[in-house]
Amino acid sequence: MTDSQRKYIPTGMPPAYYRISDKDLDEFIAIYKEEYGEDVSRSEASEMASRLVMLYQLLAKKLPGK
Q: Domain segments of the chain: what residues?
């Protein structure tokens, strides 16, 4: 991951109750490598994948009044 990409990743860890499985993390790393041609560490991948899932959960919520 380059420094220019890293600046868009907020600091801090996802909630302690949320954990990506090792299998899913391996798949995320492989997909990232295939799409961007870069390796990421397991800790970077874990944070990125957790944030992606949290974003999806946020976007999947119903809008107020709907």
A: 15-60
**Selection from 9, 10, 21 nearest residue 46 by Cα:** 21
Q: Give the separation between CA 30 and CA 35, rounded to whole angstroms.
A: 9
Q: What is the pLDDT along the chain (66 residues), one digit of tens a residue?
A: 566 655 555 555 455 456 788 999 999 999 999 999 999 999 999 989 988 888 888 888 887 876
Closest CA to 30 of 38, 51, 56: 38
Rounded to two decimals, the pTM is 0.65
Q: What is the DSSP letter of 11?
A: S
CB atoms closer than 10 angstroms to residue 14: 16
- Left, alpha or beta for 12 (phi > 0: left; psi -120 to 50: alpha)? left
